[in-house]
Amino acid sequence: MTPIVTVIGSLNYDLVTFTTRVPRAGETYQASSFETHIGGKGLNEALAVARLSPKNKVITRMVGKIGTDDFGRNLKQCLLEAKVDVEFLETIEGPSGVAVIMVEEDSGENRILITAGANGHLTMSDEEYEKIFDKSVDGKGGFVVLQNEYPDTCKSISWLKENRPQINIAYNPSPFKPELVTRKLWRMIDFLIVNEGEAQDVAKLLLPDVIFEASIEGFKKMAIEIQKLLNQENIQTVVITMGSKGCIYYTGKEEKPSFVKAQKVDKVVDTTGAGDTFFGGVVSNLALGYDISKAISFATIASSLAIQKKGAAEGIPIYSEVIEKLHGVK
Fold it and tell me: What cofactor does its activity depend on (predicted)?
């Protein structure tokens, strides 16, 4: 049976300004250029899974809401072009989600302001969840990809774990919401991916009595403790990304967590969407049955290619590009 990856989450139209520096409060500063791109963590993740999977080997589905504006039409068209199933992408009256992004040209670092728009209405009834996750199409080993850019994350996790426990819940708690960091909720998560800042925030809330150093060894220790908080029935894996340094992953089955260095690139153009690309690359490989080490290696290459292009969605590479680069590295 072809594996199914369902992404529930946000779709945004990105308004991007490139600048040599960010203006101070009250200051007007001449920017270098302006561009528009499609984005949103949900859309980026869906595109990443679809583009980073071999043709016809993974079914990628997008569950979300878009507005009746031109932004919404463009967002849907992009998914269709990537062969993402949009049966459960609903168009509602009003504006689509918008992200205002400032990118510093020298470093590629970004600052993002999000207006929810249609994403703020992405809540579903039990009946809607039953329709989306029909038992006849969601077999053992499928994945649901979630983040915090829509208001129904908590219900999505609890409904899935209660009604479709065989499906792996892959979760990135971004943007970070402390109210969603509880032992009860996290006991339902199968695959957790966090950046180093989010990992530290999680540790402060759920592991307040444990001291962790902000170092590779410190984050390895943190990965061990965070992994214990997850559901231990399915894939039971935690990944901590560390930007240009690399990432740490741990399933609880290895002797100790593993650290994988990031791929060096000649020039970082735009880091927007790099994390979503990495997330999608890992999930697509896991859905295909590859082990975590191969999935991480693949995703590391994918994200290194993404940061060398402008735009969150446009920068996501395709499967063949990553394979070619991966073989080249070897």
Answer: Mg(2+)
